[in-house]
Amino acid sequence: MAAEEKAGVGRAPSCLCVLCGLPAAGKSTLARTVLSAAAQHGWRATVVPYDDLIPEHAFQTRAVEDGVALQDVHTEWKLHRHAVLQCIEQFMKKPEVLAELPSKCQINRAAWEQCIHTLLQPEGLDHSCADRTPLLFLLDDNFYYPSMRYEVYQLARKHSLGFCQVYLHCDLESCISRNQSRSEPISTEVILEMVKRLESPNPQKNPWETKSIFLNTTDNLSKCDIQKVMELISSALSNPLSPVEDNTEQKEAARLKCASSVVHQADQACRRLISEAMKTARENQVSSEHMRSLATQLNESKATFLHNLRKQLLQETPLTQEEDFDVERVVKRAVDVFDHEKKEILLRIINDHK
Question: Which of 346, 343, 344, 338 is nearest to 295 (CA)?
């Protein structure tokens, strides 16, 4: 069946294509190439660059009391990510209206207007039928957690859009080298940290990631690579998602919510334990240098601990109703593990100081 037919009468077939991978893996380069190919297909297409849309302060960090560490302002950052999807959803409903969002999670309006300019005034297309030509959004971000990509999938499901993913695999050395050659490189530490967190699409584990392809971008993209991407997008346009009768998606959402709740509560508990450790160190008159080392080691340990906890929960938490899952018990057991690690680090620092 043609893409236009499956999308429904009076509505252009549309697709959300997620481009994910490490910084400098080649996502933006691929996006530009796909834009050119999309124009040759007669599609309206645009890139949604998260780095340009989300204000810089949303990525910045702030100090926690007692100098415990610099923590990402996750809540605000997530609000901004959600705001980007809100803009896309608003455009799908009313293309002529710029999405109105709360000031707290405002995105860069100029960047968003640039995104949709080519969609509203496509070059080389008859404007009288532009609203019937296929519409493609290329979401350019790292999308290192499945939950980030799942939010895009949910939006596609909600509005019966096509959905697909392109994971760009590039070796770490090449990513670091490319990043350093940029005019405004990010820190190498950010890339190294993302390597620890990144979870590539896994169709075997997550059926909603079935329409995903993997590209090796350590070397330059080939014509074959671009062809694979265009075929993937064409298939997604021709086969938009639709609501299903069973509650698999609701169960998956419940599992993600449950895992997030556990990690959030564990994070709060770990912060309290770290504050206690810092207090104990001060009472033992640990030097400033050793205090800084203690803070660094404790927070590195916490970051690794929370990442592994989240990963374990998503792999092992059954698809059951949330009330069947004892969040408090799981949090306590998990935090006990971190508490043991904290005590070992604190003891080592105090002994080194002496």
Answer: 346
- The b-or-e profile of 322-348 (16+ CB within 10 A means b, else e) is eeebebeebbeebbeebeebbeebbee
- Is the pTM higher than 0.70? no
The residues, ordered by sequence, that sit 6+ positions from 30 with a Cβ below 8 Å of its Cβ are: 19, 166, 168, 215, 217, 221, 229
Tokens of 112: 């968003």
Gap between the Cα atoms of 296 and 174, Å rounded: 28
Distance CA 33, CA 234 (A): 15
Q: What single letter denotes the amino acid at residue 313? A: L
pLDDT of residue 116: 86
Structure tokens at 211: 């329409």
Best-predicted range by mean pLDDT (50-59, 173-182, 290-299): 173-182
Question: Over the stretch 28-74, which tens digit does the pLDDT of each residue have?
Answer: 999 999 999 999 999 999 999 999 998 776 665 443 333 333 344 45
- H/E run at residue 71: strand 70-72
Based on DSSP, count helices (H) and strands (E) in the chain, helices before strands: 12, 7
Residue recorded with tokens 């810089």: 56
State both tokens at 201. 């699409």
